[in-house]
Every structure is written in C-alpha cells, then in structure tokens.
Fold this protein.
Amino acid sequence: MQNSVAKHYLWALGEGIKGCRPGDLIAGRYLVKRDRLLVDTQPEQLPELPEEIPSVVTPYLRLFAYQLHVPQVYGLVSSHTSKLSGDIWLLENGPILKVTESLMPELADSWKGAAAMRQLNWLWQIAQLWQPCIAQGVASTLLTPELLRVEGQLVRFLELQPDRKPPNLSQLGKLWQQWLEDAHPAIANFLRQLCQQMVAGQVRHGEQLMGQLDKALAKCGRYYDRHVEIATGTDVGRARAHNEDACYPPSGTVWGGNPGSEACAIVCDGIGGQDGGEVASEEAIAVLRDKLQQMPLHQANWDPLSLTSKLERAACAANDKIASRNDSEHRQGRQRMGTTLVMALAHIHELYVAHVGDSRAYWITRTGCYQVTLDDDVACREVRLGYSLYRDALEQVAAGALIQALGITSSNTLHPTVQRFPVDDDCVLLLCSDGLSDKDRVEECWEAEILPILDGTIGVAKARDRLIEIANTRNGHDNVTVALIHCQAHLRDEGNTFTELSVAPLDTPPEPMSDTEDLSTDLTGSTAFGDPDSAGQTQFVQPPDKGKSRLSLLLKILFLLGLGGVFAYFFIPPVGRAIDTAGESIFGKVGLINPASKPEKRVESVPSPVKSLETGSFIEIKSSAAGQLGKEGDRLDLRVAIGELTVKGTVPAGSVLQVTNKQLTPQGNWLELKVCSIPEIVRSNSPKPQSNKDFSTVSKPPINPSPAVATPSPSPAVKPTVDAVAIAKLQAGEIGWIQERDAISKVASNPTPNPNQQGKCVVNSD
C-alpha cells in the first residue's frame, strides 16, 4: 500500500517537552503552539525513528487496531538531537482540533445535554476498550477524565496512561456515578443501577458490561427513523487491460431502503494470475450474498455477537469456495486467484463492517473522516506486533505485501475482521479498493466530495462518480471500485419522551473480586426493557434470602473441598497413589471392579457439544480418524498474541492443553493455551519441515519476527507477496493464543481430558 499520511498536529510526551514554551522550534521543525501541542513544519520529511522500541510506547503499537480511539506514535525527538533534557515522543491522530489548534472537549464536559443514545454510545465504546486496555496495562486511561475526549460520536484518547495497579470495573463504575446528575432522563435510572452493579462487583468483566449497554442502545434505537441509501461503481482505470474488481449492488446501482439484509454493500479487489482476479471477486460476492439472504435479520432476533460470528463464517465460506476452485484447477503459487474483501451491513441501529486484505472502509461524519479498517499487510503486522512504528514499517521493501486474502489458503488460517458501530446520527460509510485509497486520496477529498452528502447538497450517485474520476486522474494505476452507504438516523418527535430504561439485577450474586479480575465469560445478566408504549418502573434489587444464602455457602464449601481433593489426586503424586491403593482395595473386596479383567464392550454416552471454554479447564485436541495423530487437518495453530495473524506454532491432535487466560476483543473471545502434553507418536518422531507453498499473493505470516523479505517484483496486475515458512510444533510448557471459536471446533466434546493426561500439565510456565 502507498500510504504515508502527513499528520501536521502532534501531541508530545516525555521529559524533554517540559522545558519548552509556545513559539519554540524543536529540532528545527516542530513548532510549539501551546502546552505539549506541536505542529510539524516539515511533514514531507520522515521524523526521527528509534532504533529499538521502548516499553513506554509499545502499548500504542499493540493497540494499533483501535486507531479510531488510540493515537499513534509519529516519531521521536531524541535529547541529543534537540539538546533538551530528555526525549520527546510525538503522537499523531490525537484529539486535536486543527481549526482552533486546541484539544477536543473532554467527555465529562460534553456529557451534559447530549442525547440519550449518544451518552450510551460513548459508554459502550469505553466498555469495548476496557479489555484491550487491561491486556496492555493501560486501563487507567479509561479512569482519567482529562484523557477521555470526544469528537461527535467518537471517544478519543489524548494519550495512554500506564497502570500502577491493574484497575477493575468497580472503579470505572465509581467514575460513571459522577456523571449521573447530568445523564439524560431516559437513561438516568438505567445508568444508576448499572453503576451500582459495577461498584458491587456484579459486573466483573467487559463482556458483561457491553451486554448491558447493548440492550440499552437497542431500546433507544427503536425511537429513531432510519433510512439507508447505497451507490456503487467500478472502473477499469487508466492502466489496466481488464477489471478484476467487483462490487455489490452491481456497478451503477443506487439503492434505498431500511436497514436489513438488503442494506449491504460489498467491494472486492481481485488478485491472481491468468485472469483469475475477476473470477475470485465475483465468486466471493456470490457466496456472500447467498449467506446474507440466509440470515434472519429482524429486530426481534437481534443478537450482535451471533451476527458478527455469522459474518465471519460467511467470509470463510467465500474463502473456501475460491480455494476449492484453485485446487480443482491445480493453480499453484502466483497462479492461485484470490480477492480482498470489505463489506458493510446496516442492521437495526448498527453498522457492521467485515474486512480481509487491503480494501478499506472509511467512516465520514460531520466531525471527521476516519479509517475504520486496518490493512492486512506486512507494515500493519509489524506495528501490531510492537516491532516498529508505522512510518518506519512503511519504508520496508515488502511493506504492502498482503498477509491474507480470500481464496489463497484454508479458512483455518483466515481471520476476517468484523467490527460494529452504533449509529446515533447521520453518517456515510465509504468502501473502496486501493485504486482510490492509495496516496491518501480519500483523506484529501472527503470534505469536498463526501461531506456534502450529509448536507443534502449532493447525492450518493454523483459523489460516487466524482470519486471514481479522482481515482483515475490522480492515481490511475489500478482498477477502482467505490461503494457509498449513506445512513440517516433521526429521532422521532416522541423520542424525547420515550420509556425510561431500567436494568435488571444480574442472576449471579456478587463474589469477592481481585484487582486483576476481568476475565471474559458468558453473559449472566440481561437488561429488562418494557414495551415502548408502557411506562417503565425502577426495579429494586431485593436482599437475598438468608436461608438460601446459607445453603449456597454450604454448597460452595463442599464444592471447594471436592475441588481440593481432585487437585490433590492429580497434582500431588503421593496422595494420588494412596487414593488409588485404597480404592483398589475397597472395590476389589466388594466386587465392583476387577482390576485383572477387561470389559468386553464399553459404551459411552454421547457428550454434549462444547459451547465455551473457561479459564483453568483442560482440553484435548480431537482427531478426525483414529490412529492419525498429527494429521495436518487435526491440529491447533496458536498465535503469538491476541488478534495477531502470526502463527507461533502448531499443536497436533491428541495433545492436552490448559486454558490459562480468556480475553474479549471486538472479534470475539481469545484463549491463551498452555501445552501440557503431546502424543508420544509425535514426540518420538522429529518434525519434518513442510514445503512452502508459493501463493500468488498471500501467504501465512512468517514466524520469524524479523521484517519479511518480498518476492521478486510481480507484474503490474499482481500484488507483492511474502513467502510462507514451515510452522514449528510447540512443546510442553509453551503458550499461545487462539480464538475460542477456532479452539472449540478442534476440541473433543468433553472439555476435561483423561485424568492421566491432566497430570502431565505440571509444567513450569516461566
């Protein structure tokens, strides 16, 4: 990708900035406008970049996927360059108003007078960011009001604040309680009860909090009239002989209607040799449209997590259809066809965006233009792994090489990104191939060409045509495809007096909570909403019945004693041997078990399917066929970190692992797994290196964290690639991350393996 965006206004961190005053010129280029706010007078030149990434800026890189909210590191002003008392780190894409050269308002200051859905939207974004910030040790940012800024619907961070001590949601609830007085009357009661649950420890992790806010947003969203208008277009461009892009609705279409399965737009940028790109892009759209038509998108069965999962599976289905065709046509290396994907769906009060590759989605509101997708290329991967700053990563030879696209490999290694955005005001979503997005053309023209749609001075069809013209005249090196989705959301007149919201008490009673407890589990609570036409009443939490409390306490004690006995049996060998000896003696005398005999036939009950895996549980990777341990299809590929594409290593069928951590991300739950044991048949044979596949445009991310080496320059019609490498087998004691849905598909139905295998997980994790 050609994407080196010049950001003039910067926010400064570090000791060096403390001695600077307005009017000072730092390092001959950074002009101090006011306290810690600088302007780069030479944006065409690269800033100073560090040789090594220090821990102080690593969280910014790890949270690169949350660029809508988190500023990014622009560069460094070292003390020896500036002659200052210390280094200065410069942040770009911060909450800075360029017109007034000042900071955006604090959320707390904008809270009073905001609409009910806007207030809930802000809180929902904070809840969504809670777990990622906890994982990077910067959740204190969400507890510091001066760091929480707003730009229209969007919550923005001024900077990240490291945690001295891991915070919990009880502290966040206490902060939100300070805003109760100025909460919109329709949600004041809901917010008061929600804060009480948070402070009491009933809401203990981000997933629960998002679930409560999701239901409140859905209730508020019913009082809005919504209309969607879509215009699409594709063009061969000035340099190509044929068009490998495709879009839905078909090029030249203008569609209007309500949110639902038809309120969808898709852009695909085909890649591959022998005219395969256009085949792949059309194939992907056909599969995705078929899958969308099978989804019952009605308000009554609205379930955001389920819809997110369905969109991910739809992308994987399109991937497998193209990959299967590649295999049937014996396409290898650069002849394998594939396609990028960016898809948007308007449903109820939300926008869903699914993405694979480097086609992009931009969200345009009256306050700004925001890139909401992150390219699946080498440069972005290097940043997300914390290896380099984005501007430095862009200078690599293989910076724009894709690391995933539809159709190149099996869905086992494909990780589509699906995001959702509550919409409480008019906005435009732009989907486009890199024929338009290259060289920052969208950032250059959005105010003149797209913003007028929101004012009604231009239609989506005319704006579409203008964007294609700009792509051809100012870029012109590639096919160009554009889809514009104009979402209108207007609060009805009776919306100002809609039913007051309330929140039901959670079913799970509060338990003692440690400061670091924030694990993602299934939702245990729900928000109680009355009928829109009925008056809502405040619901009070009744004190628990004392008799039931005593019984509950007794059951917990018995459970803990039993759990302690099981732990001692499996993990303290002398105790286990003593119990075995005693058991054999007792059972042998009464004739219940004859250790010397074997049953002629063993009948097992059919276990129930695994729906979720909890922290501390043991799992065993199932094999599709007996005696085929280690078969390529029966394995788990563990990642180096949450949300990353880089495969750390593989674990074969028959291996036993333990869930050591579980965390929530916008793409679903991620599990940290520790390898307890691997089958003897696998350990006894040293792994043989696998031959690399020469994919046409995309390969599995390399394990080696060093910058990838690009393949020889391809023809203009084919994008650069990164060679695949063999994946190492993990050994006992090693850990890695995987999405929960991927793990469940490979886990035996019983999530607790054979007791004899459990004992093998006594491994030093250090």
Summary: The first strand starts at residue 9 and ends at 13. The longest helix spans residues 546-571.
